Amino acid sequence: MSSVAARLNRLEPTAVHRHATVIAGIGSFFDLFDIFLAGVLATVLTQQFHLTRAALPPIIGSSFVGMFFGATLLGRFADAHGRRTAFLVNLGIYSAFTLLGAFSPSVAVLIATRFLAGIGIGAELPLVDAYLSELLPARHRGRYTAWAYTLGFIGVPAAGFLARMLVPRQPFGFDGWRWMFVIGSLGAAIIWVMRTKLPESPRWLESVGRVAEADAIVSRMEREAERRGPLPPPSPDEIASEEGGRFRVIFGPRYRGRTLMLCVFHVFQTVGYYGFGTLVPTVLAAKGYSIVTSLTFTSLTFIGYPIGSALSLPIVERVDRRWLIVASAALMALFGLTLGYATAPALILASGFLYTAASNIFSNALHIFQVEIFPTFARATAAGTAYGMSRLSTGAMPFVLVPVLDRYGPTAMFGCVAGALAICIVDIAAFAPSTTGRALEMITPGSGIRDAGSVGS
What we know:
- By secondary structure, the chain is mainly alpha-helical.
- The protein has a single domain (about 5-230, about 240-435), classed as Growth Hormone, Chain: A.
- Helix content is about 75%, strand content about 0%.
- Helix 3 (about 55-80) runs antiparallel to helix 4 (about 85-100) and helix 16 runs antiparallel to helix 19 (about 410-430).
- The longest helix has about 35 residues, at about 15-50.
- The radius of gyration is 21 Å and the shape is globular.
């Protein structure tokens, strides 16, 4: 009998693929909304709670530290209990504690609720990456994942424009920034209901021995695809082999190099990617702009996030993912340094927009790439562990970049960002494998079926 992987890879995209892509993408909307909410609100909360600039790093960093724990722990949970179950757990935690955060009476309560909400949302993007990579045919994997993130990244300018509209006001006597937390919580709750209709990953079901369930899902997709014509035979090269464990595998001889390469990458890529999004309002304030003006500028530059994601669609399957990451990181460094030097409003807006556009070509390529290089039974663990490093790095980032900004100015801060991106470029160019258009089982030998009882590390 052919493996689930071989049967999936011969399909053309079906309604199941499209439905899963849309729901995964809308779910990632709230992860990205929440991440960039920290930067949008940073300057506002200093006034709300009468804080000094020195108090900003714990507020900005608390949710990212929570995301580190969430990405690491819920990634392993997803490999043990399934992608769909993990999706429901992570959004449930996020929705509950984000709603509690809206009613925070003090900075301490706000930091605590942001940390706990971060635990929930931390695994969201690695779970989206793992789930879609396992469900989609190899030749459509990159494009459909890019579509999911294009939907998700609408959350970034949405956070900016909502802040611009709500923060200066108090609708129904409730602070505008608190309404943003309520919106994030209720939106995530709606997506939670939608995700109950998603099928489990057939590759994961097969990897834990639940072959009949996997067969039922794939058979339904095959019947739909057959309405458009006969299916080609499954490739005999995609039969998966058995191997146990997860942490033992990703840090073992076969995958240790890939794991360390990805961990190093995530420690530094987050400085480039989130260093802009979470700190640009603070950078603009340092350049002398008012809160309202800085929020307006931020909202306009954030439009580049979904546009950059959309620009990746025609190239993500045509250009080797590793070189796409390298090229877009170089552009981010260039546009970031330009923004650091810029004083004219037009140049600030142009360089900010180009930075965000380039960063989402970068982001889409890395999210597709990071789950392609590990086996199914350890994919969420590996992606979550490496991605967790980015959340820990992001949590520490304000403690480094904010003092640099205060002492040396925006140009020096973006110089640090460019240095971090240079490390990412060398890491990927020297050590990353080629993945574009290849079946997952060909990228990660020994990547599929394991003993159903082998669920420990």
